[in-house]
Write a sequence for this structure.
């Protein structure tokens, strides 16, 4: 679900809100293989593993978690499963799905990729078209800078007082629609309609029109007094580019998405991966790309229909989630660094959706893991999930995933999940 307010949100605030930054596992052992393999039969479980597993078994009760529970803990270096209960049972994963979206975006697009928004000449000298690239990080400051440049061009054409028409081209993405498994109430309560143009991640019904009217207003501020907004129009691929601006790198977008569980950014990245893989940005195309990228990495899923985890038709098991985290913490995959960084992954009891203000890792059973565990949360009305990593009492990196369905997502249930994650850290 949406974790930020409906006011404009800026990526610039991300670094300041995260702790220290840097790679949490820069000095951690690298996993044995590039792709998550089967359990390593040679691995001998440590005394800490046995103690943790025993504690988890006693703590995972029906009274606490109900009958729809899936949990798994994996030793990251050996890929060995050190504890599991219904680990292969697929359930609704909610926003832990964003771990899949992060891994795919970083793998396919790369952490340094930036998306370019352009302003092109229209069908006549007094027309300009803002061509969206699907960049979820597009800011008012970027649009303002482009408007200043375009205003200079228009002034050179003698159009300071004449009629100027601003159009938007946002068909890099299809018109917004509900993904399979989305409730109609999710839009706009949980996610704004995802379009090819949006500034400052504003939660509006038509974010592209908002970009167009803002650009019009900035042209007026720069002396083009006759500027007006005239709706959508296609930008010709051969049209002259009057101004352009690159947004934030994919790594920064992924960091924001993971830290605060941003649904709009997740769906934008999901669609952009579909485009990059040649499948297109429809729900079907993006889903096809999502599955093919995971398959090439040796990762499996139950069923996924979106990139944010809002779909009630999505299915992942705890073991599948743990394998995705396992790949993310493997330092052999340099491109996946946000998945093992405090700039992206919420820190237990400190940042993002795991902050103490959210009442996470603040109880007697879990507070000892505060600042020492990183994880992605998931929540729907009847879903609570957490998948992440920490160092166990034996000093070895452990990845974990816990998913509960069929119970109200109360603070008590979330804190019970925190207790399980803290157990992996050694809070027995």
């Amino acid at each position: 679900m949406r974790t930020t307010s409906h006011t404009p949100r800026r990526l610039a605030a991300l670094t300041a809100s995260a702790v220290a930054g840097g790679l949490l596992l820069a000095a951690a052992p690298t996993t044995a293989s590039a792709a998550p393999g089967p359990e390593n039969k040679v691995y001998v479980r440590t005394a800490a593993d046995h103690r943790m597993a025993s504690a988890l078994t006693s703590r995972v009760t029906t009274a606490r978690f109900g009958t729809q529970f899936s949990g798994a803990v994996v030793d990251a270096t050996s890929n060995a499963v050190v504890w599991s209960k219904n680990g292969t049972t697929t359930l609704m994963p909610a926003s832990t799905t964003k771990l899949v979206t992060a891994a795919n975006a970083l793998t396919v697009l790369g952490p340094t990729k930036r998306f370019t928004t352009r302003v092109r000449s229209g069908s006549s000298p007094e027309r300009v078209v803002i061509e969206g690239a699907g960049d979820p990080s597009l800011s008012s400051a970027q649009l303002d800078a482009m408007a200043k440049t375009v205003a200079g061009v228009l002034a050179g054409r003698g159009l300071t007082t004449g009629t100027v028409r601003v159009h938007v081209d946002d068909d890099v993405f299809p018109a917004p629609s509900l993904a399979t498994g989305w409730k109609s109430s999710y839009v706009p309560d949980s996610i704004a309609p995802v379009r090819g143009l949006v500034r400052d991640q504003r939660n509006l019904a038509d974010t592209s029109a908002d970009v167009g009217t803002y650009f019009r207003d900035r042209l007026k501020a720069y002396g083009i007094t006759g500027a007006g907004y005239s709706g959508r129009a296609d930008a010709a691929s051969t049209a002259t580019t009057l101004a352009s601006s690159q947004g934030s790198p994919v790594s920064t977008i992924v960091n924001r998405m993971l830290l605060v569980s941003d649904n709009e950014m997740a769906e934008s990245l999901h669609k952009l991966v579909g485009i990059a893989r040649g499948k297109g940005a429809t729900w079907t195309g993006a889903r096809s790309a999502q599955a093919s990228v995971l398959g090439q990495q040796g990762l499996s899923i139950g069923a996924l229909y979106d990139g944010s985890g809002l779909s009630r038709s999505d299915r992942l098991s705890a073991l599948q989630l743990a394998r995705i985290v396992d790949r993310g913490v493997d330092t052999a995959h340099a491109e996946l660094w946000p998945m093992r960084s405090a700039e992206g992954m919420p820190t237990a009891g400190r940042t993002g959706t795991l902050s103490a203000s959210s009442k996470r890792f603040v109880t007697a059973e879990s507070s000892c893991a505060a600042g020492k565990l990183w994880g992605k949360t998931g929540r729907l009305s009847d879903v609570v999930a957490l998948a992440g990593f920490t160092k166990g009492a034996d000093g070895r990196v452990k990845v974990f995933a816990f998913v509960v369905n069929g119970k109200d997502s109360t603070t008590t249930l979330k804190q019970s999940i925190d207790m399980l994650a803290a157990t992996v850290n050694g809070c027995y």
